[in-house]
Amino acid sequence: MGLSILVISAFVVLAISIQLFAKQKNFAFSFWVMAAVSAAMFYPEFFTHVGNFNTSGLIVPLLMLIMFGMGTAMSIQDFVRVIKMPKGVLIGVLCQFTIMPLVGFTIVKIFEFPPEIAAGIILVGCSPSGLASNVMSYIANANLALSLTLTAVATLLAPILTPLLMKILADQYVPIAFVPMMQSILKIVIVPVIAGLLFNHFFKGKFPWMDKAMPIVSMVGIAVVITVITAAGRDSLITIGLALVLAALIHNILGYGLGYWLCRLVKMDEASCRTIALEVGMQNSGLASGIALEMGKVATMGLAPAIFGPLMNITGSSLATWWRTSSSTSQL
User: Fold this and answer.
1) How far is CA 269 from the centre of its chain?
2) Number of H helices and number of E strands within the chain?
3) Rounded CA gap, 27 and 18, in Å?
4) How far apart are CA 219 and CA 161, in angstroms?
5) Which of 252, 295, 264, 218 is nearest to 91 (CA)?
6) pLDDT tens per residue, range 288-302
7) Whole-angstrom distance, CA of residue 317 vs CA of residue 309
8) How far apart are the first and last CA of the chain?
9) Where are the domains of the chain?
10) Architecture of the domain made up of 57-330
11) Does pTM top 0.85 for this prediction?
């Protein structure tokens, strides 16, 4: 009891301290998530059920709400920009749907994880980028227009490419049903994003409170999803936790590195290289969690996305801040 309270309290104090005093407040969210995850590891029974209600039932509705918020933060202009920057979009999408799936596949071969854990790591790699990459591109002084466009295009391609890549790379670990997975992505992502886009188009500026509330709702929603998955998969995490954290970290960092240097290789400008690196390295782990739930494997396949999410926020914030600082220094 004493150790558990100490660990949870330490993360809470760190989160509050960063929120109040640090220049980079993005780190606070990750420490709040770590506090919640610690509580779920020590006291899973409080997070798997509330009375007779199974909390895993919250995951898909929360993800749909988060995707709706993502849609309200986008506009039709994000898709129109494809015409204006075809090279960046083409290279970004190719990197997104080749680097991370293949790196994930390689990692599971090296670590020899149990089949469903392995499939979860590949699933993270086969998912598109999310809004977190847009925030980090803004912090990094990268090409924000390209970031928004890549997130939008990758999200629209996900219903086809994610199930296809999973069928090719992960079917040996768990049976992958292409059409049901495509339907899950359409339900969890595409329908809410389109609803958000339409809302933004017709009602932009009419509900200013909503513009302020949606980012907070999204952050709380992701934290709840990660906490519920952690509690559900607590026993598996105790067995392979450190190895899975290491695998997720390697996956994440290789995404940044390979995305950046491949773009440098084809002579893209520095801002676009940074953007694509962040788009490749930062996946929509929430979508991966939702797919795992729809497949009935949230306590196993859902673990890799739950770990990848907080990790990528820490590494992404660090990388974006370093790039921003280096940009400012070079201009002096």
Assistant:
1) 25
2) 17, 2
3) 7
4) 26
5) 264
6) 988 998 888 888 898
7) 12
8) 52
9) 1-43, 57-330
10) Up-down Bundle (1.20)
11) no
